[in-house]
Amino acid sequence: MSGPTVDPEKRTTNRRGRRRGRRAAGRRAGGRAWLGWFARRVLLVLVVLALIPALLTLLYRVPVVHPVSTLMMRDLVTFTGYDRDWKSLEEMGDLVPHSVMMSEDGQFCAHDGIDWAALNLVISDALSGEKTRGASTIPMQTVKNLYLWQGRSFVRKGLELPLAIYLDLVLPKRRIMEIYLNIVEWGPNIYGAEAAAQHYFGRPASQLSRRQAALLAVTLPNPLERNPAKPSNGLNRLAAKIEQRARKAGGYVGCLKP
Question: What residues pair up with 191 in beta bridges, in sequence order?
């Protein structure tokens, strides 16, 4: 008796199918390996990016270190240059720090980097469809200038929050204010209170009048459009309010004392 016969064409087809299956499985495995490699690289990049501000913030505890902002680095890269004359809070005097605090962040000495009450109010207004207002604290603005980019976005705001808390945890309040007042933009290619005082009023920040210090403070929300040396009526009225608040700051500015 003869054994069962196998169709050669069918056997060849089966072998081809198995080879195709192995190739497909290999491609799937290769795809998973590539995705794993890519995910690890992305995670590594994110960790490095997170470590940069964390380590720099520790470095900025040292008084002789004078940080620069991302905008200042942009000016260097584009060869436009910038004007900045670093001054300590002692050299700067009280008027500019007190005016800026009363204008930008009245609860600076009391919060932990974020004014949660103000932030919750802004969120509530946004959810109810009302026009939103700013709730950025000085620590939030400082980390934005040091580590992040300009312009409004939820991504940037989400990064600001933990960085502001960390900054407030690591640095004394006086040092945060000192850094902020030396890196904040006060006009095109003008950074810091000393350069602004010299540019707009022709005198050091320590010799400004109360009104001049208040005018510098109310310029900060829009330094590219507002000119403290040539204030509008509205800017003068706002500066008058900040001048009065700074006169009565009292315990609000206690964390700025040596």
Answer: 185
Q: Would you give the DSSP letter of residue 83?
A: B
Q: Which residues pair with 13 in a beta bridge?
A: none
Report the DSSP beta bridge partners of residue 190: 83, 187
- CA angle, 135 then 153 then 58, to 5°: 70
Q: What is the pLDDT of residues 177-194, one digit of tens each?
A: 999 999 999 999 999 999
Strands (DSSP E) along the chain, which ranges? 185-187, 190-191
H or E element, residue 20: helix 8-59
Q: What is the pLDDT of residues 40-49, one digit of tens each?
A: 776 666 666 6
Task: Note the pTM of the prediction, 2 decimals.
Answer: 0.81
The SS3 of residue 187 is strand
Q: Which helix (H) or strand (E) holds 210?
A: helix 210-219
The single residue listed with the structure tokens 């939030």 is 140
